[in-house]
Write a sequence for this structure.
């Protein structure tokens, strides 16, 4: 999964990088807690995260994405304020979309930009490439 945060730039611009960094840390912790021990989440840069779900069946993917979206969208109370962010997620699946990690990340990134342009929370690469 390739995920970026919506409304994060506004937080950084209005409240400064320290608050922005704290928001990113909170989101990262929430993501870790919403995944299984076998999964991996990493900040890719800026407000982007890559999430690797291992041995995730297609029928389970929807519930994982919903859990991730819910974790991100939970309000964040910080410095006497409440911040709300949401996300766009692009999905690429092994082996249909690639067998190498860099292929999967690249295709999930493409799908994430399609989700953004279509104003949807998430979209699979197969749905934009086919």
């Amino acid at each position: 999964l390739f995920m970026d945060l919506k409304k994060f730039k506004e937080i950084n611009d209005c409240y400064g990088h320290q608050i922005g960094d704290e928001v990113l840390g909170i989101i990262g912790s929430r993501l870790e807690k919403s995944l299984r021990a076998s999964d991996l989440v990493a900040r890719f840069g800026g407000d982007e995260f890559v999430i690797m779900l291992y041995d995730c069946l297609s029928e389970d993917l929807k519930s994982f994405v919903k859990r991730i979206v819910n974790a991100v969208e939970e309000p964040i109370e910080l410095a006497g304020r409440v911040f709300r962010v949401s996300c766009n997620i692009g999905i690429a699946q092994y082996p249909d979309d690639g067998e190498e990690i860099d292929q999967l990340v690249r295709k999930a990134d493409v799908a994430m930009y399609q989700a953004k342009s279509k104003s949807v929370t998430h979209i699979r690469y197969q749905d934009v490439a086919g």
Q: What stands out?
A: Residues 17-34 form the longest helix (18 residues).
